[in-house]
TrEMBL record:
SUPFAM superfamilies: ClpP/crotonase. It is an enzyme of class 4 (lyase). It comes from the Bacteria. GO terms for molecular function: lyase activity. Transmembrane segments: none annotated. This is Biotin-independent malonate decarboxylase subunit gamma. The gene is mdcE. Its EC number is 4.1.1.88. InterPro entries: ClpP/crotonase-like_dom_sf (IPR029045), Malonate_gamma (IPR009648). GO terms for biological process: carbohydrate metabolic process. Keywords: Lyase.
Length: 238
């Protein structure tokens, strides 16, 4: 699904979203209220320019439109791996974008992300995973690292990783595995406009990703370890 088709499905009451150099920004109507929309398209990698531009959209919304909902549309192959970006400190730009999303949440802006095509590595972490809740379309592709690359880095044979991926979502790509781990709240089908309206209404409150991962059996110790660190308690075996 291209972004124009997605926008029509998400915002049947109308939108004013524009695309420039693979970045999306604008406003739309959801349930009678105006929302800020920011995102990417065409699998574009997030470089310093897009990171700064997205951060600016979010900060402008926080300054000019208090508590306006923010919708992040995710389609990226990750952070841009170029010498120029690395020399400029791409990690700092990505962190800045993540902090801007965080401050929007802290200032009372409901932030909802939707992976509608592809979401990989750092480009996903500082956008979709920083939202109050992240959702995905059934045909979307989500992964931090492909199994061949993981095999090269970990020195674990790819055949072994493939075997592990059948039973452990941590090793496996795909939206359904991220649902099991709690990183993705749910997969949206059918009436996308109704799904988005309901998600915005539910956004806010404590981060439940680790708890969801435990409930769904995808990350059985994340919530326990987090709670032990917070309280100084012990970690009990799963």
């Amino acid at each position: 699904m291209n972004w124009q088709e997605l926008a029509s499905a998400l915002f049947p009451s109308g939108h004013a979203i524009e695309e420039s150099k693979h970045m999306l920004q604008g406003t739309a109507s959801v349930g009678g209220q105006t929302v800020c929309v920011v995102g990417t398209t065409d699998h574009v990698p997030i470089g310093v320019e897009i990171a700064l531009a997205q951060a600016r959209v979010i900060l402008d919304t926080v300054r000019d439109h208090p508590k306006r909902p923010i919708v992040i549309l995710v389609d990226t192959e990750g952070q841009r791996l170029r010498h120029r970006d690395e020399m400029l400190g791409i990690n700092g730009y990505m962190a800045h974008l993540g902090k801007c999303v965080d401050i929007a949440r802290r200032r009372g802006h409901p932030v909802v992300a939707l992976v509608y095509d592809q979401a990989l590595s750092g480009g996903f972490i500082t956008s979709g995973l920083m939202a109050d809740a992240c959702y995905a379309l059934p045909e979307s592709t989500i992964r931090v690292m492909g199994l061949p690359a993981m095999a090269r880095i970990t020195k674990v044979p790819e055949e072994r990783l493939t075997e592990l991926a059948r039973s452990n979502p941590v090793f496996a790509p795909g939206a359904s595995n991220y649902v099991r781990m709690g990183g993705v709240e749910a997969i949206w089908e059918n009436d996308l406009a109704a799904c988005l309206e309901a998600a915005i209404a539910r956004a806010g409150g404590p981060d439940r990703r680790a708890a969801l991962g435990a409930e769904r059996g995808g990350r059985r110790l994340a919530a326990t370890v987090t709670d032990a660190v917070r309280t100084g308690g012990d970690v009990q075996p799963a």
